[in-house]
Specification:
By secondary structure, the protein is of the alpha/beta class. The chain has a single domain, classed as Glycoside hydrolase/deacetylase (TIM Barrel, Alpha-Beta Barrel), CATH 3.20.20. Helix content is about 30%, strand content about 10%. It has twelve helices and twelve strands. Strands 3, 4, 5, 11 and 12 form a five-stranded parallel beta sheet that branches. Helix 8 packs parallel to helix 9.
Amino acid sequence: MRDFSRRGVLGLGLGAAAAVGIAGCGSPGKPEPGTPGPIKNPKSQGTPTPKAIGDGSTADTGPQPNQPDKPVPLQPGETPPQFVVFSWDGAGEIGNGLFPRFLKLAKDHGAGMTFFLSGIYLLPESKKSLYQPPNNPVGASDIGYLKDENVRSTIKYVREAWLDGHEIGTHFNGHFCGGSGSVGKWSPADWQSEIDQAVSFVTNWRTNTGFTDLPPLPFDYRKELVGARTPCLLGRDNLLPTARKLGWRYDSSSPGGLQQWPVKREGLWDLPLQSLPFPGHSFEVLSMDYNILANQSKNTTKGVPANYPAWRTQATGTYLGGFKRAYETNRAPLFIGNHFEEWNGGIYMDAVEEALKGMADKRDVRLVSFRQFADWLDVQDPKVLAKLRGLGPGQAPAGGWGAYLTAA
């Protein structure tokens, strides 16, 4: 059995029919000027004439709308913002209404999010032979292909998400976490093939589906794609050289991290899921819905219903506890991973919604995407970031922020 405690690691993709194995793999206050943060009065940055790309599945529509102001460096003695990134693995709409639910939640609270799209969710099962996964049979996938109507819905909501200002990253394709074909054994060349195919499925959905009545996705995906999370958080070491070659800016595949300010690895910002206090336990749990589930219902996604209320409260407490620890001390960014799934009666979706609401109205809080956070990191003084990294989880700056960062 896998250890689901403080160093436990799980990451899944979303599937049309989720079946989770014991290895954790399944089918799936007031903003400072120039700081990425809640978009209370979103404005479009113009509506240029779209330029169709390829078969018209995507189009260059100009700068993405609903973005925060351009970030600026922290000033001496200034308190850092509290960044929170809510991210979604798979990002497919399978008919349960969760994608639109969280788009509305984000809009209601001025939040930016990251959606790590699985490429095959835009590929009809009838065309699965187009997918040639590295070291696996043609068409194989450890997550289910979506029904045609769900492919349509996914295209619709991915488009809406980008126009709302959210980031569209990638969760790659087949979500292989075990056996000889596991992504943990892939080479940099294998990752290149997988990325090329994911991009192809996103940029050729019109040809592959035959849908002619849907508008194009309003972005050039090869330019927009700047970060990822690997299936089950495996294979990062061989992914990074390829990601760097492609000009990506961050990776969120590290197998667990502490609540500290990030560093770069292989030229990319390392933005991992984190270990958070787990209410009622002496160990900490990874900041992802499935990892909380694994500790509550022991890998089954349909635990005893009588336990759901307590588990929901515990999950909400995990997210808010991690937030409180950072917000009141080192202001380290908080990264939370999710899936559009109704595991254990949908309690994890309720928990993340309540947690977001509990964070959104706090002073200095910025609910952003990974890319928006990377934008902020990139303009900071390296000495200031090094000073921030000197604070461990739950460690407040000696003498307060005014004294601590003035001395950076």
